[in-house]
Amino acid sequence: MTVYRYLTNSIGASAFMRQKTPRLSAKNIQDRLNFAKKHQNWGVEDWKKVLWSDESPFELYATPKRHNDRVRAKITKDVPRIWSVKFPQKIHVWGLMSHQALSELHIIPQGQTLNSPYYRDEILTKTCRDAINRTENMGLISERPMFGNMSDFNFMQDGAPVHPAKITQK
């Protein structure tokens, strides 16, 4: 009997992928707990008044993880190849969403660091303001008004360093 058979058949053990989990500091944990306590009694109508903002990097031509990308075939020749590039291009985008609409994606130019002046001048002042000021429903979700009543909404953003900077808060 092999070790594999013993583990799977005799004691019922299976192989699992190790899951990644964020390493949280005591401050991170406390901040998350404070956020949860502050918003624990919010109802659906309260959450409908939230305007979410976030940015994220994306890799173009990313190669799928080999352990997740399986193809059934009788011989190797029948398996299509995965084309890859040595140094895939990356783009960094910013977006905004409410319960009823999305902003246009703001593509941060290659080589541009997301610093406080850029965030304030290019993203908040232009892209964000354009999305918030939409009043006519043009059909697409990225062309609809963000809210019916713009006087009452909460702007939520994560803890990225550019968000709480003094220059951004003015």
In short:
This protein has five helices and four strands.
Description of the molecule:
Strand 2 and strand 3 form a beta hairpin. The chain is α+β, with helices and mostly antiparallel strands and 170 residues long. The chain contains 5 helices and 4 strands; from the N terminus they run αααβββαβα. Helix content is 28%, strand content 15%. The protein has a 4-stranded mixed beta sheet. The relative contact order is 0.13. The model has no long low-confidence stretch (mean pLDDT 85). It has a domain at 53-170: Ribonuclease H-like superfamily/Ribonuclease H (Nucleotidyltransferase, domain 5). The longest helix has 17 residues, at 116-132. The chain has helices at residues 3-10, 26-39, 44-47, 116-132, 166-169; strands at residues 50-59, 90-97, 106-108, 154-157. It comes from Oopsacas minuta. One of its GO terms (molecular function) is nucleic acid binding. This is Transposase-like.
Helix content, binned percent = 25-40%
Number of helices: 5
The CATH homology group name of the domain at 53-170: Ribonuclease H-like superfamily/Ribonuclease H
Number of strands: 4
Kindly report the average pLDDT value.
85
Unreliable segments of 5+ consecutive residues: none
CATH class of the domain at 53-170: Alpha Beta
Give a quick account of the main beta sheet: strands, pairing sense, barrel closure.
4 strands, mixed
CATH architecture of the domain at 53-170: 2-Layer Sandwich
Distance between the termini: 70 Å
